[in-house]
Amino acid sequence: IAVEAVVKLAALMAVGMFVVFVVSGGVGPTLQAIDASPISRWDTGADRWATLIFLSAAAFICLPRMFQVMVVENSDERHLATASWAFPLYLLLISLFVVPIAVAGLSVSPEGSNPDLFVQTVPLAFDRNALAMLAFLGGFSSATSMVIVAAIAVSTMVSNHVVMPIWLSLREGRAALSGDVRHVVILSRRLSIAGILLFGYLYFVLSGGGAALAAIGLVSFTGVAQVLPALLGAVFWRGATRTGAAVGISVGFAVWVWTSFLPSFGEGGILTPAIYAHGPFGIVPLRPHALFGIEGLDPLVHSVFWSMILNAGSFLAFSLLSAQTPLERLQGARFVNVFRHSGGTRGWSGGVVEAEDLLMMSQRLLGATDAQALFKAEARRQDKSGSLPDVTPAFVERLERELAGSVGAATAHAMIAQITGGVSVSVEDMMRVADEAQQILEYSSQLESKSRELENTADQLREANEKLVALSFQKDNFLSQVSHELRTPMTSIRSFSEILMDGESMTAEERQKFSQIINGEAVRMTRLLDDLLDLSVLESGQVVLNRQDDTLDAVLDRAFVATGQLGAKATIAVDRHGTDEKVPLRTDCDRLAQVFINLISNAGQYCDAHEPRLRVHVHEVDGRHVVDFIDNGSGIPEESQAEMFEKFARADDHRAGGGAGLGLAICREVMKRLGGEVDYVAGLGGAAFRVTLPDAEGAVAGRDR
């Protein structure tokens, strides 16, 4: 096909150069001849010109032969980069001499001659038989290449999307390893090609055979453009439905047949002159060239206008009116967001798959040589010495793409699914079951309980989604808080450092004051970084616990001393019962004290009572010792209680300004590693936190983790 394209271009340019430099005598005389020709006075009309441009663009996207060349037979996407400049250049070169040849042809040919033959009749008129033969070969190359590519493309579509799915459904799962798959594919394509040629010849005979090739092409372009709305909708609109596409294409195709295809046979052919004048059965608004009473339009413009308007309108209307099935929603998301999912590899749901089975099936579809080359290349890619690769999801997907070029995507997927074991639970089957279940749930009163379960599941999913959104929002707030917390001390350190550097006349007291500020900001920044590092180590499970023997009252004493809540400097009054705190411990007491320190600090910082007071109550719950830390404040808002132990969470009130939201998350992770728990207990007065102490087994388990 590529060689024929070069031959066609060379022949046309040879004839063109002959016309310009031999017949006309140069570029200048050629331009003068064009100005004097009736062609220069030919007014196409803006509406027809715009229609021709639209049809050309639609044909470029929708014609089967273009898809065959650009997609099916394209082995490397990088070739499209070359085609992006080579194809427009080819069109420019092949169109360069069209007008000069047309002018020369009109001057040497009788009136009414077929313009498609000018490329050959011009050399013959000047006795250039060799050039005429070259032109004939170029025209023959052009015709055969169009027929070959179009026939292959259409026959592939027929076999892949019509014959093979029907044949597979009749075989009931025996197709993948049967020996007649390739025979069915080849036979269906041969019969399709024969049918295409037969229909082309019948059209030639019925239309009289006198129509210009361009006129026939415009009729074809208008017909194939009817898939354009559904094609663009499927790629760019997730709301498109199968019903909308089917109705839109059907309506557009019907309008095209009535306004363009049937009239192409000429008046008196299939449609009688009475139909053109008065419409079918006397219905004037349905006249082929004046649909709905609009007259005076060019027939091509009229056909394209009404077919595309009604096609796109029906597609949009029925897509909006019809409900999408779950399968359509999944396909819409995948097609519209194709580049989001292109990097991943799909797996399959099946058992153990043997490479020999896949090779056997591939040989029957691709041929032994191509199939073995494909499997050997994959084996080399996997660094295997043999010729059979491991059956990985990536290889299965790659093999499916190769088979799709021979039998179509749907058929290839079905045949591979039969071998991999995924056919019994295919996506289509699951979606069909879901549709049936949805209808039953909507219209059957006997399944109300099942409907309530599904509603509860949907509520849970909605709550989970809302929680994820909230966590993402909290994370963003946390990152902003961390950057602020780091930037503030850094700014202070830098500012006061510059003051110290430039303050030659500064007193010793001022230097001491600024140095203390710098030290305090450094301590503040170090504390934040320590919290972040501590939480990261805890969550990753890399923490090493130092188990030791101690008593609960000793650990509590250290915690209160560390927080400064003992003596005259205490910010909150503490109620303790020493006799209840004589509980022996066998755990990492430093980590446990870290939890107590955090809870005591929170109480001292956030308790909003006029006279803050913290009560520490040690008792047993379900056979385990627990420590309750209860202040007399207003407590934590109910809407914040569910997420207070989450990372980055901060209570949404005016008292939450000081922390970064890591303290309780660290407490939760520490107690998890120790084998205990920390929870918020509502209804005990103020903010109440309960620490369930680890037992000996829990501590050992935590250290092993």
UniProtKB/TrEMBL annotation:
It holds the Pfam family HisKA. It is a multi-pass membrane protein. The chain crosses the membrane at residues 9-29, 49-67, 87-110, 130-163, 184-206, 212-237, 244-261. The keyword Oxidoreductase does not apply. Residues 440-474 form a coiled coil. InterPro entries: HATPase_C_sf (IPR036890), HATPase_dom (IPR003594), His_kinase_dom (IPR005467), HisK_dim/P_dom (IPR003661), HisK_dim/P_sf (IPR036097), Na/Glc_symporter_sf (IPR038377), Na/solute_symporter (IPR001734), Sensor_HK_Regulatory (IPR050736). GO terms for cellular component: membrane. Its EC number is 2.7.13.3. This is histidine kinase.
